[in-house]
């Protein structure tokens, strides 16, 4: 069966990067007025040539987002289940070679965490783990989903890529959404950052969204870790991937995230720095390229940045996040996967959203909608 890899192999990283940096102001102006924007338009919108047009991009992005999504911002929260991991990743606090105490939450501990999360007001939870197939596997996910399903309207998952039949086993347990970030589409650098473990298999990860689509997952999330390689080129490949998936698996919905590399204990310095202004450019470029895709911003970003990005294309936001297993109730002081930047409570974030004339949405989905 064909997959995105067939398309990906027709592209060359260096040639793609060169074509982005060769875009001119005329290319940007053409992209701004286009009725339907192409991948070449996206290249122009993320290119350095688009920097002087940021105000125009932001205005169009706001208009398109209001037309498609209205004045609402969805709220979600991560629930870290385990920091056990068999992969070595140069940028992650859970990396196998990072000498920290490992923990996987028991059913009782999961429910302690759920109680705190529910008290915050959440109905959408994102389950997160490292990649340890012996302990954190499909059976563990089934039991966890079965346990928490009565308490949440929407359950997302960001765990190791699974086989097609595994995803098929999890959807009856209430799995709605799966996030799988490629980290970088630069194959050689991918190998440098993932030298050991199943995650070192670039192609298996690249083809994970194909398996999600074939399994009929309701929504899938894509993205790269910004800072590992040239962000403009990496994000073009994300847009290329999204473009392919929407045509191939049109029944699924899609979301994009744009995490910037954050500090952690013994962590990697970003190879490429992305400024706040450049992140705004990227968010607007994604919106101008695709009016339907959901755009998510996490607590990695500062409170000031998040306050100012609400009206420019974002559709979902996390708040009050803890990035360690047991962080809400069981072991609040344990090692985090990465440092968060915006430490405001969910109620403070909701108040900020309302102050801008938008409505915070704690629940936007119900399983009865697909029955």
UniProtKB/TrEMBL annotation:
It comes from the Bacteria. Gene3D superfamilies: Aldolase class I (3.20.20.70). Keywords: 4Fe-4S, Iron, Iron-sulfur, Metal-binding, S-adenosyl-L-methionine. InterPro entries: Aldolase_TIM, BATS_dom, rSAM, rSAM_sf, ThiH, ThiH/NoCL/HydG-like. Residues 71-300 form the Radical SAM core domain. Its cofactor is [4Fe-4S] cluster. NCBIfam families: thiH (TIGR02351). This is 2-iminoacetate synthase ThiH. It comes from Mucilaginibacter sabulilitoris.
């Amino acid at each position: 069966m064909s997959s995105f890899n067939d398309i990906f192999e027709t592209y060359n990283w260096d040639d793609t990067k060169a074509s982005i940096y060769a875009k001119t102001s005329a290319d940007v102006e053409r992209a701004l007025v286009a009725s339907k924007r192409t991948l070449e338009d996206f290249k122009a919108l993320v290119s350095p040539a688009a920097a002087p047009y940021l105000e125009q991009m932001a205005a169009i992005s706001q208009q398109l987002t209001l037309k498609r999504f209205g004045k609402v911002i969805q709220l979600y929260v991560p629930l870290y289940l385990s920091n056990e991991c068999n992969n070595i990743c140069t940028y992650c606090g859970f990396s196998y070679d990072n000498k920290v105490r490992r923990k996987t939450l028991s059913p009782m501990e999961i429910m302690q965490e759920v109680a705190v999360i529910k008290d915050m007001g959440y109905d959408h939870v994102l389950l997160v783990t490292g990649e340890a197939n012996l302990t954190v596997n499909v059976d563990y996910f089934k039991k966890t989903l079965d346990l928490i399903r009565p308490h949440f309207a929407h359950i997302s998952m960001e765990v190791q890529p699974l086989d097609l039949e595994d995803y098929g086993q999890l959807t009856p347990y209430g799995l709605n959404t799966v996030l799988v970030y490629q980290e970088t589409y630069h194959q050689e650098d991918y190998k440098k950052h993932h030298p050991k473990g199943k995650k070192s298999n670039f192609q298996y990860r690249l083809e994970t969204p194909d398996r999600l689509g074939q399994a009929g997952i309701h929504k899938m999330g894509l993205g790269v870790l910004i800072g590992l390689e040239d962000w403009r080129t990496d994000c073009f490949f994300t847009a290329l991937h999204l473009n392919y998936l929407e045509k191939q698996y049109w029944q699924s919905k899609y979301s994009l995230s744009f995490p910037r590399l954050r500090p952690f204990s013994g962590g990697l310095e970003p190879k490429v720095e992305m400024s706040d202004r450049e992140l705004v450019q990227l968010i607007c470029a994604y919106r101008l390229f695709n009016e339907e895709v959901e755009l998510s911003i996490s607590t990695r970003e500062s409170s000031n940045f998040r306050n100012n990005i609400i009206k420019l294309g974002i559709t979902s936001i996390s708040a009050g996040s803890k990035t360690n297993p047991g962080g809400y109730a069981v072991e609040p002081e344990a090692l985090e996967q990465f440092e968060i930047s915006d430490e405001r409570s969910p109620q403070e974030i909701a108040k900020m959203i309302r102050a801008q004339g938008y409505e915070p949405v704690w629940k936007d989905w119900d399983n009865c909608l697909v029955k």
